[in-house]
Amino acid sequence: MQRRRRRGRRGRPGGPGLKRELEALLFATDSPLTAGRLRKIFREVSVKELKDAVAELQQEYDAAGNAFSVVEFGGGWQIATRPDFAPVVEKLLKTRRVTRLSKAGLEVLAIVAYRQPLTRLEVDEIRGVNSSGALATLSERNLLTVVGRSQAVGNPLLYGTTREFLNHLGLKALGQLPSLPELEQMANDPESLKEFANEVGRDVTTEEIEGYFMEPESPAPEEMPTEASGDELPDPDPQTPAADEAGLEHEAADERS
After folding, report:
1. Where do the H-state alpha helices sit in 42-130?
2. Does residue 117 have a cis peptide bond before it, meaning omega lies within 30 degrees of 0?
3. Hey, which CATH number is domain 103-256, 4.10.230.10, 1.10.630.10, 3.90.1640.10, 1.10.10.10?
4. Within a 10 A sphere around the Cβ of 80, how many other Cβ atoms?
5. 135: closest CA among 121, 115, 149?
6. What is the pTM of this model?
7. Whose CA, among 3, 7, 125, 222, lies 20 to 30 Å from 140?
8. Domain with residues 8-81, CATH architecture
9. What is the 3-state composition of the chain as percent helix, strand, coil, each rounded to the nearest 5?
10. In this predicted model, what pLDDT tens digit does every residue of 162-178 receive, in sequence order?
11. In the chain, what is the straight-line distance between the N-terminal and C-terminal CA atoms, in Å?
């Protein structure tokens, strides 16, 4: 007996029911929803049907002249206000308190973004100072994460950028990163970064940009000369160069303490 495909409460896959539910998810999420993540929710709907529903939703918003639209960045989709409404949104967000990255944090973030994966000692060698504090801050803000272990002596931890990092720059993939000179200009000029982000499809406000590219008033405590010996923790079991995700996160915390 042939098993009938259950359609459930969504009715025809890719139809109006799917579009409205997809709209609710894209509105409620605080980060872009990838096709893979949506497929886990809509198990009976293909990736093509999902993309078609997103396109229909976007066309619907464009035709209605809404203040928001579906934007694609960070490898997924999210509903966001259109760039034309950035000035009025900025007025709302002006009183929002932001935690800003230090100059050291920006340096470390740029180094890892362009040369990942890197160990902490490799970052130290490039900067000439200890980067433990900056790595800790960036990891806590989910801009960097431990991605594995190096095959060097002691199997030190390797750091790489996260999906959140791409989201904040409005990028779909690392290949869209601007050149280093362009990034330096953006770090000194929030309007330049805002313009770049809008060009790649991410609607951001000046307030949001300044939250990540303005140096705090107090000096960064991590600016200390690098010790010759370093403080990389060896792998307790040299036979297993890779640990599970929980173990890596735990050791990363120990490394930074």
Report:
1. 47-64, 86-93, 103-115, 120-127
2. yes
3. 1.10.10.10
4. 21
5. 121
6. 0.43
7. 125
8. Orthogonal Bundle (1.10)
9. 50, 10, 40
10. 888 887 777 777 777 77
11. 62
